[in-house]
Specification:
heterodimer; A: five-stranded antiparallel β-sheet; globular; B: mainly beta; four-stranded antiparallel β-sheet; 0% helix
């Protein structure tokens, strides 16, 4: 079992729709969770961090965390063509851990 | 600096040659990480530095890879006797500390021919 799993996609949504990206992780002791956006040929860019169960909203982005189910998600409301990118779920190792394990990413296409 | 700076941005080298990749993290960031990303693949952890602690080298794929961080700031990743499978984008990132999100540099694209 991979440590951080994501559906590779591609996920295609129409402009203005909600895009839902999902991620599961295996280390039950993980404490920190992140979503990064990576445009083609560019480096990953941090867009959301979440540390406790529940929802965290930032503009059009909402991160959701459920530690009991070992599940993290990212919702993008009012999707725009500029949101088309690969979204990487990342999970920091459990207590005392130091490195972040990245999922392989989900490719998102937003159709105009 | 304003961001994480990596150099060179591109490097083409012949198989068997040694290469050095440089990373200058954001000022004040105590944690520095090296990852690599092969074409169409995810990010593979290589090595982590935190302050003056001994680095965690558990992700280095072979003893041809080494890294150092001088004065708690600039880091150099060295690959000796490069092989074609070393071709990838090498990404450096820094953060304010353990458990925080990263800021990535623009990467070094290494091509071994």
């Amino acid at each position: 079992q991979k440590e951080v799993e994501q559906n590779s996609g591609p996920l295609s949504v129409p402009e203005g729709a909600i895009a839902s990206l999902n991620c599961t992780y295996s280390d039950r002791g993980s404490q920190s969770f992140f979503w990064y956006r990576q445009y083609s040929g560019k480096s990953p860019e941090l867009i959301m961090s979440i540390y406790s169960n529940g929802d965290k909203e930032d503009g059009r982005f909402t991160a959701q965390l459920n530690k009991a189910s070992q599940y993290v998600s990212l919702l993008i409301r009012d999707s725009q063509p500029s949101d088309s990118a690969t979204y990487l779920c990342a999970v920091n190792q459990g207590t005392g851990g130091f490195k972040t394990i990245f999922g392989a990413g989900t490719r998102l296409f937003v159709k105009a | 600096g304003a961001g994480v700076s990596q150099s060179p941005s591109n490097k083409v080298t012949e198989k068997g040659k040694d290469v050095e990749l440089r990373c200058d993290p954001i000022s004040g960031h105590t944690a520095l990480y090296w990852y690599r990303q092969s074409l169409g693949q995810g990010l593979e952890f290589l090595i982590y530095f935190q302050g003056n602690s001994a680095p965690d080298k558990s992700g280095l794929p072979s003893d041809r890879f080494s890294a150092e961080r001088t004065g708690g700031s600039v880091s150099t990743l060295t690959i000796q006797r490069t092989q074609q499978e070393d071709s990838a984008v090498y990404l450096c990132a820094s953060s304010v500390g353990t458990g925080y999100g990263y800021t990535f540099g623009s990467g070094t694209r290494l091509t071994v021919v």
